[in-house]
Amino acid sequence: MILGIDYGSKMAGTTVIANLYEHNKVEFYFSKKNQDADQFILDFVKANKNVWLIYLDAPLSLPAIYSDSNAEPNYFYRKADVETKAMSPMFLGGLTARAMKLKSELNRLGIKVVETYPGKLAELIGLKEIQYKKDKSAIKPCLEIISEKSKLATNEEAVINWHYLDALLCLYSAKRHETGNSVVFGEEKEGQIIV
After folding, report:
1. For the purposes of burial, counting CB atoms within 10 Å of the CB of 137, is it exposed (0-12), middle (13-18) or buried (19 or more)?
2. Of 75, 85, 91, 175, which sees the most CB atoms within 10 A?
3. Residues 181, 9 contacting (CB under 8 angstroms)
4. 98-114, pLDDT tens digit by residue?
5. What pTM, to 2 d.p., does this model score?
């Protein structure tokens, strides 16, 4: 089982899991307000023993300078962040630390966790031109493009906000990578973003 996860603030109720099951069908699960998002993900994985791969929308490493004094002295951005125009892992602070801890816990369970960035995939497949994250009425046309390009079967009524759409984009990034169609940003030793 492969998951795409739009990772939100710990207790905000904005974390969404897109679960790929039998023949490109997708179902969604979401955290609730005041529910620990990290525990929600761990509980889901433990209840679904066949999860082996997760594409997570969160930084999973820090700029190289923090582990290698000879690295390029960029204290805010990794090469992958610069290439994708993503937010700094340092600016995201607590979310980055949580994501790195969660990855470690999931790795111990035998699950591979890959960093992705739905905003970059949205740009690559033309969603920015149709008001991606600008207007809620754009969710449906964005979903139509994702469905056409990815062949992922999604219940249109289930995608109720941008968190659901981003979780689906994370899942699409996983599918693109598994079929050899992804784009890789950054350097392996520092941390890559795969879309």
Report:
1. exposed
2. 175
3. no
4. 999 999 999 999 999 99
5. 0.95
